[in-house]
Amino acid sequence: MAKYPEQNLKTEWIYDGITPDAVEWTKSFGEFLTKKQNEIKPLTTGQLRKFFGEIKRIESNVEKYRNDIAMLKPLLAYAVGRDTIKYNKKGQNIINNKTHIKEFAEEVEKGIDAVLNGKNLKSDFNNFVKIIEAIVAYHKYYGGQENNN
Fold it and tell me: What residue numbers bound the domain in which 106 lies?
């Protein structure tokens, strides 16, 4: 079975459709995003919602908003940049993320690239949206919170 982090998002799920392995992967990834690891806090529902809202807008008319698909990557980069924390530890400048937004961005960018490089924009984007919807659903199921205070 495909589980995160041993398995990454597969482009074949974008091109060929959602498989049971894809669902299992979204489940494990959604759960991962809700867990605290060392100093990295869970991804918040607000962070997910900002991105999810944008993909749903594009989904409403994929042909009209096709150029906005590529702009999802800078949107993710901005979210990762906003989430960084800088500190000095034993004379070394350290930059870390506060939440799992970086891991989310890295996986989702694989899906964006697959859509951009695919042959069937509408179908590929539809499969991409299904993957994101499943991640959001499992994130909520496993206790995704609005904020990490």
Answer: 23-141
